[in-house]
Known about the structure:
By secondary structure, the protein is α/β, with parallel strands linked by helices. The chain has 9 helices and 11 strands. It has helices at residues 8-26, 43-59, 74-84, 103-107, 121-126, 137-148, 168-175, 194-198, 260-278; strands spanning 3-4, 33-39, 62-68, 90-93, 157-161, 183-187, 203-206, 223-227, 231-233, 236-238, 250-253. The strands form 3 sheets. It has a 6-stranded parallel beta sheet with strand order 1-11-8-7-5-6. Strand 5 (157-161), helix 7 and strand 6 form a beta-alpha-beta unit. Helix 1 (8-26) runs parallel beside helix 9 (260-278) and helix 6 (137-148) crosses helix 9 (260-278). The protein is globular. The chain starts with a strand and ends with a helix.
Amino acid sequence: xxxxxxxxxVAKQLDEISLKIFQEVKSNxxxxxxxxxxxxxxxxxxxxxxxxxxxxxxxGVEFNWIKLDKNTSQEKLxxxxxxxxxxTDGLIIQLPLPDHLSSEDVINxxxxxxxxxxxxxxxxxxxxxxxxxxxxxTSLAVLELLxxxxxxxxxKAIVIAGRSRLVSSPLAKILSSKSYxxxxxxxxxxxxxxxxxxxxxxxxxxxxxxxxxxxxxxFKQGATIIDxxxxxxxxxxxxxxxxxxxxEVASYRSPFPGGxxxxxxxxxxxxxxxxxxxx
Length: 279
């Protein structure tokens, strides 16, 4: 029988850890601070940041949301990042940015010790050492989900769909490390026969962003399915997994919504708590 992997209890567990650290900081007359920068009026970006603002209020974190015009130049954005980084414990640049801006260039202007999203080249590169400080929030959310529900990864075939610095790259590295010992394969838009790989997966993690892309025929009996993707069709949002008949094959499945999403926001503030504590 399919077990649903709800994100709320995982998020609650992370929040309790973060809140304890934030309270310790406040006892020393300092209020934890996070800055978020959005460029333009992408509805999804504004929604994501509003959720982060709500979580900040819940955890007692001061939250500074800087909203920039969509035509903001690369130079002005970089100058702002450099200035604001001096006045905060954690800074995020909400992606995606408008097409005329280089996301990687701007992100790498964030000093590693306030890069709460863990997306600078420095922090991503540190994942290849044994002393990394931060894991990108979405990747951390998936790992915490697996840990919370005690889903075994050792010698399991894990297939990750989609390639990004936010999800697939960090996850592939960490899940194949000695901490998890999984056999990881990353598939993408140029993979000619995705089903061939997915039907062999003990654990399938989808971060494509294409509505109902994978139906029950893609999965082997007893698979664990984690849906990270999000897309909008006719004003409605969907995950990557077509859930019709999915309970007939899946042993464990994260729902959309209510799965990885709630954990991701809490994971961001868990990262902030680590930065506050170590800085």
